[in-house]
Amino acid sequence: MFLTGHGNIVLSTDEAKRLKTYLESGGFLYIDDDYGMDKAIRREMKKVFPGNDFIEVPFSHKIFNIFYKFENGIPKTHEHDKNAPQTFGIFLGDRLSVLYTFESNPSDGWADPEVHNDPKDKREEALKFGANIIIYALSK
Amino acid sequence: MNTNFYKEIISKLELLVKKEYFALLLFGLFAALIITIGTFTVFSFIELISYFISTIRTVLFFVFLLISIGAISYLIILPLLKYFNVIGGRNYFYSANKVGKYFPEIKDDLLNAMQLVSSDKTKTIYSPALLDAAFKNVYERAKPIKFESIVDLSKVKKLAKYFILLFAFCALLFVFVPGLQAASNRLVNFNQEFIPPAKFYFEVYPGNDEITKGENVDFVVVIKGEVPKKVFLLTREESQTNFEEHELQKDSLGEYKFSIQQLRSSLFYYASAEDIQSEEYQIKVIDRPVIRSLDVKVISPSYSNIPVLEQKDNGNVSALVGSNVEISLLTNKELKSAHIEFEDTTKSELKVQGNLVKGSFRIRKDNSYIIVLNDLSDNNNLQPVRYYVKALYDSNPAIELVYPKQDVSLANDSRVPIEVKVNDDYGISKLNLNYKLTSSKYEPVQEKFTSIEISIDKKIKEQILDHIWNLTQLNPAVNDVYSFYLEVFDNDNVSGPKSAKTQIINVRVPSLDEILSNADETQENVQDEMQETLKEAEELKKELEKIDKDLKQDKQQLTWEEKEKIEQALDKFEKLQDKMESASEQLKQMQNELQQNNLLSEETLEKYMELQKLMDEMTSDEMKKAMQKMQDALEKMNRNQTQDAMNQMKMDEEKFKKSIERTMNLLKRIQIEQKMDEMIKRTENLEQKQNELSEQTKQSDQNNQKQSDELSKKQDEISKELDRLQEKMDELAEKMNELKDMPKEEMEKLQEEFEKQKNEEMSEEASKDLKQNQKQKAQKNQQQLSKNMQKMKESMEQMQQQMQQENQMQTFTDMMRILDNILSLSKQQEELKNKLQNVDPNSSQFEQNLQKQNEIKKNLNKLLDQMSELSQKTFAISPEMGKALGNANQKMNQSMQSMQNRNGSMATLSQGDAMMHLNEAANMMKSSLESMMQGGSGSGGMMSLMQQLQKMSGQQMDLNNMTQMLQQMQQGQLSQEQQGQMQRLSQQQQMIQKSLEELNKEAKQSGESKKIPADLENIVNQMREVVSDMNTEKLSDDLIQKQEKILSKLLDAQKSINERDFEKERKSESGNNFTRNSPAELNLKNLQSKENLKDELNRAVQEGYNKDYEELIRKYYEALQKENIKN
Predict the structure, then answer these.
(1) How far apart are the C-alpha atoms of B761 and B793, rounded to whole Å?
(2) What confidence tens digit (pLDDT) does each residue in A125-140 have?
(3) For strand B347-353 and strand B335-342, is the pairing parallel, antiparallel, or unpaired?
(4) Which end of chain A is more exposed for a tag (fewer CB within 10 A), N or C?
């Protein structure tokens, strides 16, 4: 599942429950802040997994090298608040079941070139990271 | 013979002998004692080790006795007898000899003397006198000597020491050697039989004890002494007759353990090993009352809407203060009583019905409690589980003013849009808007706030509300300041609703003057900024030219200095663009404010919008792409690429500079138009004010001086405004003088007329007349003034219209001319192209055609200049037209080059392209002319849409005001007349709804609807709702708010058209790469194990374990939580 946007997101109790079932059954959720969603995401995911926190994923994790290598962690596709890009995850066991990218916005790099007019290398980088996400999600 | 001397000597010798025997006695005593004690000790040891039977002990004892007696006899009694001369007799000669040997002064003289004296033979030989004399001589020498001093007691002393040592030693032995005393006792009681002690003994735990029925019992047996091979625990329940044997195993501590689970009846037990048994003990089982099942129901206060929580076998409660906790439990037996005991020692009795117990308590604070049960035998439940009550407190609500965040000016429609965010953990009961007048020229300020309740959905805990605060009813005057804040209350009906407030915002009613002065200031600032930017752009152009020149040097790689210079130039260019963006933003805000206060005519507004578009194009994505291209080239340090990019940048910079110039010139023109609008508005305003004042003067009481003074004051203000009007007219005239084709003469005439009218003097006179209560005289002047203002307004409107028409005509004419010229050039180009086709490369026609092409090009350049000049006056010339002609020019250059190279085919190709671009420009020109004829400069469709929306907004505003007035007049049910009025208002709303539906339909058909961000259909639906409510005669606050929201949406629709929110491309900025350290490696196991443990524990609790386990589980869980918090 892919979730992105900016501003607010609200999950009803039912929705939170269903999302939890999906993730616990092996599902994968990728969240990309684009942007201003951080507070809402953290709040809503607590409804889904009250006992789990977002943990920053180290660069050695498979998500950064399962196909393409990202030695410096997630690439910074778009500028938001001039902070370093970060990758957070919620782990169920040792399985990364929710991936959340912040201050990086790779999904904007996946759009058609004329939408954001990003340089080619930025878009390629973003697409490569996207490939890693798909491969990780489907192979775990 | 003197026998006295002899007796004395004998007695001395006797003393010696006695002392000798005394020493011997002492010696013998100590020796005997040593022997006795030693023998006894040794024999005791032997007995200790061997544990003899009576016979052997008897032998031993008697041997001991024998030895002792023997020792005593020989060592004590014998010397004693000798001491008392019972046996042995005395041998004084021997003693005298001893003395003689010991004392050298006597030697054997004493012995000799004694022998002489006592021998009968010597008595016959020697004379008695000689014998006496000889004895006396010895006596005299011996008299002072103590004969007994020769007795050596040192040996006795030594032996005494040995005796003491031995005695102490033996005493210690008897004290500290276990069993020695008993052995000696056995020895002494030789004829008694003693049972030998066991090899080991048991220590058994818990010994005798009392437990509650069903509890587990752990037995521990400790062996003291020699460890037997097997150890058993024998148990027998009360009902059983025989003991059951259980073999025990030793653990690592050397203990033997055994457990019995859930003992239900009393038990007797003892430990046994080989033939040795411990004492018998009893475990008494008491059937204490025990909770079998516990049901807890937590009923939260109704306002919280928290559903009833039911818990099984878990008395821990976490709930809101005010919640009621109902307890129902079943015990194992019938009870006498039961109660809850809280941490603070308060108690709450529970109802007992057999083995069912019920009760309840209310949560007021954090607490803990135990449930105490008391059965019919007065047994209590042992160690009742302590349950914890966590009181949750209803938090305060939160409120945040999203808009406005700071003081605002009141718009012309007297409405303040408010956006507020409220939330509470359990719900909201009320939201109030509190306001008061804090500053006014005409009215006294209010001390207290007036409160208006804002309708809110009480079911939603977190919401963002839009509310339009309509101040029309308050009749705000210019410079009045209203302060307001919002206050939200939660629905806590246990402790009482809590509230939260926003900050206080001031709403000021700006004067016309203020708004217009601000607009003037903004425009002046923007023009100054643009002037400065233009200057900087010129400097940048020079820099770029220099850099370009350097780049053309024949080097392979770009140098670092060159790179830096280019980067600096790029930076400067970016900054210039930012400045223009900022200027554009300022103009936008100014335009909005003027528009909100109806201070801009449609034409002027349209022109501002066109200007905005122009300014937006200055920071277009095309330019950004070009700059990025330059950045890329610089990064690669590629000279050629950088050169190409530099050429483009130069062109862009030139274009940018020209755009600034054009913008400045157009802004000057627009400003003049805006000033004209201002004049019209001022005169209109003055006319209105004067009319109002005339009316007030007419109705005033001449004799009321206070009233007259007030009217005079108002007239003075009009005088001031007239003065300002004159000033502004002069300013306008000055601005007109800066430009050509301005109606300067008409303006001069207007100024002259204004002066001729002497309006200011007339007003001052009217004011004086008013003060002097000369009402009629004043009214005459007032009426004249009104007329003058009306005339002035009409003249201005005429002048404005004329100017616009003339300008438009001139533009039209100029454009027609340019179009004509373009078409002519296109035709010439076509002819030339045709001529050149199939021409031989060696033909001389090439030179002729080249000349012709050059002429065409020169004419095109002239055309470009004309267009450029025209573009300084009108928006009708778009940049695309210039680009098309520019492209045509480029193609012409290419064709000329090809012709120089005698490449006919290439030349014709370029000429074809040139023609195409000329035709492109011509088409654009034609479309622009057509739009002008329709009555717009290209955005005619959108303008008409906006005009209609504006009209509808006005109608809606009036309707809203009337509806509110009707609501105020309503007292309970509507009267018949009011119902009729309501019907009419409903019809009006329906009319506006229909107009909007039509407008929406037209917009869709024309394709313009895509450009409107506002959802007109949504507004139409809302209008339908309002109509429906009005038809059912529901004149509620809800209806009023719906109407206000409709108005707000209509205004928003207009605003967003102005702001050109549509077709705005998403702005995004590519990110800069970051290099940083990786976050710490994951420790999922630790995290997971804790999570797993928590889950397991939770599950365990839910599964309903034994009370003991539950307590244990709960304590462990708490410790885990504390650890988590610490981490």
Answers:
(1) 19
(2) 999 999 999 999 998 6
(3) antiparallel
(4) N
The rounded mean pLDDT for chain B is 85
CATH class of A2-139: alpha beta
CA distance B1072 to chain A (A): 6
Residues of A in contact with B1064 (CB under 8 A): none
CATH topology of domain B291-392: Immunoglobulin-like (2.60.40)
If DSSP states are collapsed to H, E and C, what string results for B979-1040? HHHHHHHHHHHHHHHHHHHHHHHHHHHHCHHHHCCCCHHHHHHHHHHHHHHHHCCCCCHHHH
Partner residues linked to B325 by β-bridges: B298, B361
Cβ <8 Å between A117 and B621: yes
* Interface with A, mutate which of B419, B461, B631, B1070 (most A CBs under 10 A): B1070
H or E segment to which residue B219 belongs: strand B217-225
Residue in the block written with tokens 């025997």: B21
- Closest CB to A76: pick one of B625, B628, B1073: B1073
The CA distance from B741 to B806, in Å, is 9
Q: Is A124 on the interface with B (CB under 8 A)?
A: no
Write out pLDDT tens, residues B956-999.
988 988 888 888 887 777 888 888 888 889 999 999 999 998 88
Q: Measuring CA to CA, how many Å separate B769 from each of B98, B761, B784? A: 173, 12, 14
pLDDT tens digits for B61-75?
999 999 999 999 999
Please enumerate in sequence order all residues whose Cβ is within 8 A of that of B228, keeping only pairs 6 or more positions apart, or say none.
B199, B200, B273, B274, B276
What type of residue sits at position B147? F
Q: Are both B200-286 and B398-510 of the same fold?
A: yes
CATH class for the region spanning B398-510: mainly beta
User: CB–CB of B665/B746 below 8 Å?
Assistant: no
* Domain edges within chain B: 3-188, 200-286, 291-392, 398-510, 512-681, 682-789, 807-934, 1084-1126
Neighbours of B1096 (CB within 10 A): 11
Tell me if chain B has a CB within 8 Å of the CB of A42: no
Say whether B1070 and A73 touch across the interface (CB within 8 A).
no
CB spacing of B1070 vs A91 below 8 angstroms: no
Chain-chain contact of A116 with B1068 (C-beta, under 8 angstroms): yes
Model confidence band, residue B482 (pLDDT cutoffs 50, 70, 90): very high
CB contact under 8 A, B1081 and A60: yes
Q: Which CATH number among 3.90.870.10, 2.60.40.10, 1.20.1250.20, 1.10.1740.10 corresponds to the domain B200-286?
A: 2.60.40.10
With helix as H, strand as E and coil as C, how does B142-206 read? HCCCCHHHHCCCHHHHHHHHHHHHHHHHHHHHHHHCCCHHHHHHHHHCCCCCCCCCCCEEEEEEC
**Chain-chain contact of B1091 with A51 (C-beta, under 8 angstroms):** yes
Nearest to A84 among B1070, B1076, B1091 (CB): B1076
Asked if residue B1059 has pLDDT above 70, the reply is no
**Which of B433, B447, B335 shows the shortest CA–CA distance to B380?**
B335
- Predicted confidence (pLDDT) per residue in B804-842, tens digit: 888 888 888 888 888 889 999 999 999 888 888 877 878
Shortest distance, CA B1087 to any CA of chain A (angstroms): 9
**Higher pLDDT residue, B1098 or B615?**
B615
- Å between A131 CA and nearest CA of chain B: 20
Query: Average pLDDT, stretch A97-109?
Result: 93
Cβ of A21 under 8 Å from any chain B Cβ?
no
Identify the CATH class of B807-934.
mainly alpha
Q: Do β-strands B398-403 and B317-320 pair in parallel, antiparallel, or remain unpaired?
A: unpaired
Is B1070 within 8 Å of A59 when comparing Cβ atoms?
Answer: no
ipTM value for the complex: 0.80
